[in-house]
């Protein structure tokens, strides 16, 4: 049997990754430190007691191991042993555990998924994931005693297993962290690989025995751990941190080990803390502190340093033609332009003037040179320019730099390439933040989920202008977010180099990094023949690298490059360059995902460890579920890795499989079209299917490519291309398994072109003379069963109302939520209801959320979603459809896309498995619905385990066609950017282009004429009075009100909260009942018809909870200030008990009341992190409710607090506040003059800053007020106010 020898370099988890060595002197990291006992593998030159060659293996263990190999039908002596752990480390087998076509696999499908019971093969990645986890768990439970592993208590903790699903379950990888008494054990894991249903590799890494009495209760607090790290760093602690403190169990390899079998590991409980320290800059410092003694085990910087269309540097800015010269007019893919997202060719279709910045679906640029913004019509060209760093073309803002344009292009192309191989990797679907032109030089880094690039200087180029550096840093991110979820060891630099090399097809990493010199001007060349002539082997690494991660990383990056450029292109394979590149690209994207440690042990066989690079490449190359009988390219893989001393001598090396595979290339023809290319090819004998690849740019086919499709047909249409740009295609015939490659076709080029528009007019009929009997007028079309272009639901409801799109199927699956998007094709419409099936007959709360555009990226993030309806209804089961009518219909303008999320709190909504998320599911003349997802957890923030994709909504969508010239009922979203001026409205076609200057009528008549005109006139206008001054009410003594008016329930004009607290103190203006829609915030205006002081608000929430509520205010209307904090004052921020949708949530009185003078407007913004309930309104700015003193206007719902100008999908308009406004009626100093005899039409208050008066609300008695040291009685306003001494009250 093979004895695995664990000798290498420092464990990668405690190393900093840099392209060039970093000078730490004078920085917060100058005291960086790693305890030698944390080194997993000790260099041979170190004094170390655990000498593995001298370890005596107990006979009992050998006997047990022989039984295991016989039981599992393993190749004798093939099992790897970790002598320090005294356990099996790696097993290579061919054990069927799932139905599949692997050798000796006779299993059949009858499964239970995480959704519902079903029969047949899994369809989606999440179904494969759940089934694979259960199958591997069952296998490990069955063999737990053989492996001496506590499966039930230390493995498969909920939510901890990470998987990689490839090729519809062809390969399934599992990463299973070790958890001991609820605490993660750093570096220890189990792993498994399934191929064609067969379990082909099982491993247990760093799996020593933890004593059963090991305590996970810390003696030190997290705060004390922070103090210990600060003392070690000799720097003061600052407020905040870069990670939450967490308890971990560290695996130690003590130098004082006994040297006995199974006694090579010790364990300690430690705090992991990431403090902010004095002088800290880009560093993310992590400390590991013994949770019992306070000993520091590690203090390191965790940052991974690298030490539309526009001008782009294809590879470098080094001026070498053609790929080091700026190329004008390259596409800006997946960028938001106006309300659209550009495609891979940078195309968008919105007419008129649009505005864009370097912000897209997958990439957000933050440039230290400034911001970017470009507006125009008929296309946007960001241009080109000379210079470097902050040089711009003079358009697009100071942030339109070389590095910004290059990053937008290169990152999107690298991600597109990766997604084509890893469609289930969710990190590749998220937005990546890129920080550019940092005021430093000669470096770049990956850290805190961002990539960061420096300016030129110090003999180095601008790293953000170098495609190789860009993809290298992005490669760190992919390594950190693959199956293992962490940076690989012993160095993450190697895989980052590999990703860059495969994308560029260039072994010189970061060409142009150094601005002088010839040859490779990058930081290293991973082709050993161009960097010294001999491989940097495992032995060389042990002798000369001293653990430096760049040096160590070349051991395996050179192996992968040799596999591509040498062993696959030599006999007996003799592949062409394109075929070899795609073989290695496929192997790398699959294999690298589940590699925890690329190599370890001792040379010459450093690849025998579980989950090594060599073993994972073999697993990815296997074609039949049995590595022991060889793989299609095993000899090539072995030679490339063995030249670096990181292969393994078991299993035996031989090529096998792929019988009858194609051996000749197809001939390809490419036909250009408008923004598309049609690729067709000849048939190839032995081909089971064909794969089509595309690339673009100055290097032609000589670079990494996007895998477009795998198909059994012989043609494919590639859409979304840039007209006038050349694209390149190859087609590869594939054998019976995805590992089986035939030779690629010759490279075919095409330039898409828009077809010319005919210039000759269409022929017309010859005029005819009028007939004696003119044709009668056409009959009325309404009622003909079709909603014609001049018909709408308001004029022809029989044809244009309650139209239905049915997308019914069997509904074999289900979950509590279903999410999909809908597009209005040609007309404005309102979605009015949904019908669907449920799994059972039961009562449930049902909620419907919507958001503008596609939901992608917000599946479990509530940002941008608006709750448009909720109600408790009876779900009618799987036979009768449940109908969910929307009282507030969801408006959609022509061409608009909206996402919908239907959620039930009890039971499941039935749906079906789809074919592709985002593919068209059904359509009619007016509306399209697209395939979406099933969701098991509402806005949980956890992605993979809670989303099922793709899923087909199984039901009926009802809608009305509405006129574009009238309000579409109740609009739900604003345009991309709200105008800053008050003249245009959010919906120009729905509302007047200017806010009314005069106040609009109230929703109810006033109680009586007032002594002066109100700001809100009566709904029933009165005739002008004939007396010089209008009377307050009919009376025999009109000069003054009755003496007994106080306590009549009405706050008269001559009464105040002081003189008549019964009528004028704590007055409540009620705005309806609980609403059916909701968002985290609501914004509205109040107009006072007399002097008032706002005390507080009461409102409804979506659920009961304790949460903070904030209230902001500003003088005048909020219009134009919805997105920016400037001008707003925070007047209330407290944690309150939110009472849900049936009981008002009470904030309590504000510490400082907000005074509104008569005739003035004051705006308010109430915000919580959850949902405030409201209703859809009629017109923003229209009066919602009023009384004799105060009016509230229709406002807006807000999903994000002050996100900044240009934020989209943030505001929903119009919306109705639902709750109560509590105020006091007062009389302020310098009262306004009474009105003249002429009735004046009140105008909306000017947006000026009113005086703010502070009220001590609790004290209504003058005596009580005077007795308080904090308050003073103000006779002018007749109320108790806070004593502010001689200072003047500040304006809000």
From TrEMBL:
Residues 751-780, 963-1059 are annotated as: Disordered. This is Fibronectin type-III domain-containing protein. The keyword Electron transport does not apply. Keywords: Signal. SUPFAM superfamilies: Fibronectin type III (SSF49265), Metalloproteases ('zincins'), catalytic domain (SSF55486). Transmembrane segments: none annotated. InterPro entries: FN3_dom, FN3_sf, Ig-like_fold. It comes from Cyclotella cryptica. Residues 662-756 form the Fibronectin type-III domain. It comes from the Eukaryota. Residues 1017-1045 have a biased composition (Low complexity). Coiled coil: none annotated. Residues 1-18 form the signal peptide.
